[in-house]
Amino acid sequence: TGTRVVTGARDKTVRIWDATTGSQVGSCLGHTWTVTSVAFAKNGERIVSGSWDHSIKVWDANAGELLTVNAAHQESITDLTFSPTGEQLATASRDGTIKIWHFASRALIETLRGHEQAVQAVAFSPSGTRVASASWDQTVKLWDLAAPTTPITLSGHTDLVLGVAFHPDGQWLVSSSRDNTLRIWDAEQGDAMAVLHGHTDHAHNVVFSPDGRYFASCGHVSVKLWDSATKQEIASSPRNTIQEDYALAFDPAGRTLVAGTDSTSVRFWDIDGWQVTDTVQAHSDEIYHLCFHPDGSRMVSTSNDGTTKIWDMEHRIPLSTLRGHVGKVGRVAFSPDGRSLVGGMIDGRVVVWRGQ
Questions:
Q1: What is the C-alpha to C-alpha distance for residues 67 and 350, in angstroms, rounded to an integer?
Q2: Predicted local distance difference test score (pLDDT) of residue 303
Q3: Mean pLDDT score of the chain
Q4: Which of 7, 8, 61, 148 holds its CA 20 to 30 A away from the CA of 40?
């Protein structure tokens, strides 16, 4: 229902906040190291968190009670994502593995092994039958969950691969790398389709618009917009407007791209005209993550200043500022129905809460 927000932070806690008033309504204590990611489950009744303590934790979001702990990974969790239906959860780690979990039971379904170094990002295909992973070993791997021991390795990058995303039609995917390039791959066979040279520094992340018409990428010094049909760059922000630890997200309508810029502000780009329609001073330190509620009415920003802010997207003003964490607030992600939140921890665990 979008009434609650969950955050994870360096203070080892998961905190639950009222999205309207900004007041803390609960906290989940149990991790022994930084909480790196959190997400609501699809039904809104559980929250999952991941940590540097190598574990996944599942929480009751109403009571804030710890329900289960999964010692998910041997090293810190770098990313986690739900399948399109919300039935499965994928976690990625610096231990070089990806794990697939049945979310309702918290049972481990599969451990995907094959990368030689840390896995930085993970994405489900739109069908939910495949997973793509991006790794520091300079490869992307494409995993068929029906035959998970024989992944397709996508080679071509010459430095760490930092991001990966499927096109909404599921036929192709894009990876981003510290080698300054984006690469386009066939999602069925893994064949290389194109190499996109546009960034002059590390290409950290890539995201698709919900309708698949565009994809955007973000590096140290610029945000770029690409046409999905032609695979051509169609717009770019001025140089030196994006902080090194960037944030990037499309709104659910696909009409606006938001980026964390100048380390402390959020810039709103109109996609059709590629014009900056607003720049908002958001935080007092670098912006770490941006995400939208599924209905698009609100946006959440997290920052190294220790705060999480909830934004009214109609007026582009903060509704509330959530305080209580010390240091960088971890990655936050809504479940597909907006009712649940899960977090991945620097200590390797994942924690789950339930929202109303």
A1: 12
A2: 72
A3: 80
A4: 148
